[in-house]
């Protein structure tokens, strides 16, 4: 019953490693989109335009309250009805980037709000603009508060990339499925995929913690 | 509703004050903090503001720094309106761009210093000159080091605020504000958060500023002895109004109003 075959492992390993590259790329691109877009969402929510802030807040709530997989399907399959034909990769990156940008915007918002009011006042007394204050004073100080959450979502987005398999992105789980159905053997590919995820997630989380400590001490906060 | 009628668009003449509060009113909901305040501060004058807490004295400084909005009246700095801007021969509430232009004349030090914790003392001083005044890093460094020298903090210029004592942080904060070359300096209870033994190092810096520089200064303080020593004029605030004002020798030595007498005797008993 439990016949683990090492020769099969050796045979499928190159394909899984290639798919690991795709998974890392998907997580990486998606995360960069989420990091940048999330910052704009967070700052936009704090702006003085009431209409804009309401739209952003409700939009973020909407995306956070619906499943990622539905959003992926929506971008990929409903898009063409509106003339928006996207490749699985592009559709997947938009969906996952947008989804995580909403979570990251909340992380940024928490970080930004944890910076004391006196810092804003000091920046005003130096006659800095709103944008200069964010860039030079507020965002750098909110970083230590936000880094833990940012790291969590880095690991989170990485673990959510298998959802892209539903629209045919050849990431790890999609590839393991394909290998399994071609060979009628699922034990090795699924087990290996699990270990690959573990082998990447654990060190990433540890690195984030290390980075957090370094940022804190560099900012003279310890 | 904030358009002002009958206020001059500009103050001119020999005796134009550096700062003028004209009928300034500030309230938070039903709570009136400043009630029809009129106050002139001449160029180079050092004015201390004293009074019980809740009398509106800190609000005076915060409004001058544009940290609070105005509910009535107008503030002028160096002859031009600060809280309002001229538009079609009327004064309307100032917009962000106008405020930025006008508040370049004003610098402020806070009770809790509010240094940027992620920057060294030197970087704190260079930040404004580089970002706001557009100075080169070299120029900004030169100016900042000169000022850190003045406040006696040049040895600690590469330290972050978390490594500095309260008195040291406040001295860096004074250098940081001066680096912007303001015409008016505001000191908001700058010694209130300090341990007694380091108050002297901050008051000595302010003393040196008063004697060596022709800065216009407004200072809110609880240190009566210090206010008496260095002020040209002392204003006693009570209930959002100036109850009594005058040269320190008169106000402290021979207060006319009963509230002033009561306040001063209560304060001297506490010491």
TrEMBL record, chain A:
Coiled coil: none annotated. CDD domains: TM_PBP2. It is a multi-pass membrane protein. It holds the Pfam family BPD_transp_1. The chain crosses the membrane at residues 16-41, 62-79, 137-155, 190-211. InterPro entries: AA_ABC_transptr_permease_3TM, ArtM/GltK/GlnP/TcyL/YhdX-like, Ectoine_EhuD, MetI-like, MetI-like_sf. Residues 20-208 form the ABC transmembrane type-1 domain. PROSITE patterns: ABC_TM1 (PS50928). It is found in: Cell inner membrane; Cell membrane. The keyword Transmembrane applies. Its main location: membrane. Keywords: Amino-acid transport, Cell membrane, Membrane, Transmembrane, Transmembrane helix, Transport. PANTHER family: L-CYSTINE TRANSPORT SYSTEM PERMEASE PROTEIN TCYL, MEMBRANE COMPONENT OF AMINO ACID ABC TRANSPORTER. NCBIfam families: ectoine_ehuD, HEQRo_perm_3TM. Belongs to the binding-protein-dependent transport system permease family. HisMQ subfamily. This is Ectoine/hydroxyectoine ABC transporter permease subunit EhuD. It comes from Ruegeria haliotis. The lineage of its organism: Bacteria, Pseudomonadati, Pseudomonadota, Alphaproteobacteria, Rhodobacterales.
């Amino acid at each position: 019953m439990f016949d683990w075959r090492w020769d099969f492992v050796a045979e499928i390993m190159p394909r899984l490693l290639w798919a690991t590259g795709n998974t890392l790329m998907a997580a990486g691109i998606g995360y960069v989109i989420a990091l940048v877009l999330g910052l704009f969402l967070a700052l936009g929510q704090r702006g003085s335009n009431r209409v804009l802030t309401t739209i952003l807040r409700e939009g973020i709530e909407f995306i956070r309250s619906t499943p990622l997989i539905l959003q992926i399907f929506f971008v990929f399959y409903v898009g063409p009805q509106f003339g928006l034909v996207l490749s699985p990769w592009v559709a997947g990156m938009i969906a996952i980037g947008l989804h995580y940008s909403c979570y990251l915007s909340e992380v940024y918002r928490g970080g930004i709000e944890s910076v004391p009011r006196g810092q804003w006042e000091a920046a005003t007394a130096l006659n800095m603009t709103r944008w200069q204050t964010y860039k030079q004073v507020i965002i750098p100080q909110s970083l230590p508060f936000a880094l833990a959450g940012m790291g969590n979502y880095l690991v989170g987005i990485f673990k959510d990339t298998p959802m892209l398999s539903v629209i045919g992105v050849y990431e790890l789980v999609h590839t393991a499925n394909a290998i399994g159905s071609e060979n009628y053997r699922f034990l090795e590919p699924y087990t290996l995929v699990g270990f690959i995820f573990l082998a990447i997630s654990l060190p990433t989380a540890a690195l984030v913690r290390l980075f957090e400590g370094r940022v804190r001490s560099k900012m003279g906060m310890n | 509703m904030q358009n002002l009628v009958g206020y001059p668009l500009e103050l001119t003449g020999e005796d134009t004050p550096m700062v003028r509060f004209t009928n300034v009113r500030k309230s938070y909901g039903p709570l009136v903090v400043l009630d029809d305040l009129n106050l002139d501060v001449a160029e180079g004058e050092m004015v201390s503001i004293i009074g019980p807490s809740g009398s509106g004295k800190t609000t005076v400084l915060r409004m001058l720094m544009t940290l609070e909005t105005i509910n009535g009246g107008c503030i002028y700095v160096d002859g031009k309106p600060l809280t309002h801007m001229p538009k079609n021969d009327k004064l309307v509430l100032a917009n962000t761009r106008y405020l930025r232009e006008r508040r370049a004349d004003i610098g402020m030090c806070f009770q809790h210093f509010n240094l940027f914790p992620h920057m060294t003392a030197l970087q704190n001083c260079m930040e404004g000159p580089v970002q706001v005044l557009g100075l080169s890093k070299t120029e900004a460094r030169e100016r900042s080091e000169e000022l850190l020298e003045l406040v006696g903090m040049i040895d600690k210029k590469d330290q972050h605020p978390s490594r500095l004592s309260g008195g040291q942080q406040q001295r860096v904060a004074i250098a940081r504000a001066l680096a912007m070359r303001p015409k008016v300096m505001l000191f908001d209870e700058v010694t209130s958060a300090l341990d007694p033994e380091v108050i002297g190092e901050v008051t000595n810096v302010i003393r040196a500023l008063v004697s060596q520089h022709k800065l216009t200064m407004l200072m809110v303080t609880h240190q009566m002895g210090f206010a008496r020593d260095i002020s040209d004029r002392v204003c006693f605030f009570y209930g959002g109004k100036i109850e009594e004002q005058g040269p320190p020798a008169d106000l402290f030595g021979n207060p006319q109003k009963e509230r002033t007498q009561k306040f001063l005797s209560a304060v001297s008993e506490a010491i």
